[in-house]
Structure formats: C-alpha cells, structure tokens
Give the backbone structure.
Amino acid sequence: MSSKVTKTLGRSLVLASIGCIIGLAFNFARPEGIKFVRSAPYNIYVPCPMMSKEAKPIEVQDLEGTEDLIFIDARPKADYDRERISGSRSLPFNPLKSPPKDTVEKLKALGPNRIVVIGDTDIDSGRLLAAELSEAGCLGVRYIKGGFPAWKNAGKKIERSEAGP
C-alpha cells in the first residue's frame, strides 16, 4: 500500500477511537447512561396464542362455551363408536400415517382456536394428533389433558351407541 493510504487509514482509526472515547465519557457522566448489557432479556418475541403452531393442553374444567368448538376424537374408531362427546368427529391417531390432507384443509378452514382434540391415555393420542394438526397448519389447536377418561370423570355429557354398555 502507498504511504498516503496508510496515513489516511491511521488518521481514520485515531478519529474513530477519539469519537468512541468521547461518547463513552458522556455516557458514564450521565446519571442514567445507556446500559450496554441488559439485566433481563428483551420481551420482543411473545408467542401469539392464535398463531401458535404448538398444541396447548387444556383441563376439562377450563373449557368454557363449547358450542363453537370442534372436538376431534383421536381414539380408535371402535372406542369412538362405543362412546364419544356429542357432536365430535372421529379422526383416529395413527403413528405411522399423517392425517388425510383434505381433512386437515377442512379443519384449517374452520379458523383458529376452534379445534380441541381428545384422545386416550394409553399413548396420549390426543396430544400427539393435536401436535400433528398444529404442524400441518391448524392454528390454536388444544388437547384435553387426561383425554376421554378425564372428560368422563368430570361428568361431562357423552353419547353412547345403542350396543354399548
């Protein structure tokens, strides 16, 4: 490099250093200077429950106003046929297959925060299907903690088939 370029770079570094030192001096002289390290993390990324792609658990007693909710039953079809939540839809969870795309599209079209999945407690099918539906793009999906047994134990209304007990 030429000596002219070297001198210009050197002067630029000196001027930048002087500017930094003056800025730091003024900051330290102020009663409440600008903090360089935040003591707590910034709260700028707060998850929006409506837009969450994560299925959230919900207790049976926390379900209010179920008339506009869509209940999806993740239990095996035989269990659903025997007893179910009135008006629920059967979509048995299969760990080897994803839910049908046309069914997922219909559920997405219902809008956010309307889908509640209920399953069994053996493999926690409600939680697993809710997670799959969330990953597929259904927004605000929730699942009932404790599944269908929790629903029954809470004394909530169920339908039974004619052949059932």
In short: The first strand starts at residue 56 and ends at 58. Residues 3-29 form the longest helix (27 residues). The chain has a mean pLDDT of 86.
